[in-house]
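Service request form, structural biology core

Requester: graduate student, group of Dr. S.
Request type: structure prediction, single chain
Budget code: on file
Notes: please return the result as structure tokens.

Sequence provided:
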Amino acid sequence: MLEALPALAFQAVLVLARLGGAVLLLPGLGEADVPASIRLALVLLLVATLLPGLAPGLPPLPAELPELLRLMLVETGVGLWLGLLARLVALALGQAGQIIALMIGLASPLQTDPMLGAQSTATGRLFSLLAATLVLSTGLYGVPLRALAESYVVLPPGAPLTFDQGVEALAQAVADSMALALRLAAPLVLAAVLGNFALGLLARVAPQVQVFTIAAPGQIIAGLLLLGMLLPAMLAVWLAAAGDALILVGGG
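Core staff response, request fulfilled:
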């Protein structure tokens, strides 16, 4: 039993490297608002659950330190890559909130957002929290967790990695995230363009009136009312798209 402990500890740390890197970025589970102790407990629970089934396929304890470090770095990189693919799905809703804030005139009141940075708007922060809430409340977090378990079949530890497919998948995920954000914000963008066009015509007809100064409060109020009416439909569209995207992450 004592002789097997070093190999068992190495396998546990190897699994921890991939799972820990992914959980840092997974939507819902990896939010900065979730206490670090809870995330650590979740990772340790996943390691304890998956290790018995994964142990036969894990590489043995390397005899040399460079090989051990290489395995740890590769496993951490794979976990971060899988977590980032899933995180980009959630970021689409936060990006949509950023675009909406710009369109309705709320781009100046900034809020601190751990995921989007210090220059996040109020609607961007709200949509980021909504994304995490929807992922946790609908059970969507189980899809990337299952993908993590299945990744040991597609990307077994110790096997040589090809970066071409990983970079291509990441670039496609970024493009899909931006496309989804623009699709969600499209009604507000269209309304803002039409509203500014109407204000421009009014300014040409009555140049003595301070049109934009007077219309600024109306733009914010009308934008918030329109956002309130469209929010349920936007969340439903994002939830359907997020489910499809996370299934693709698991299948990839």
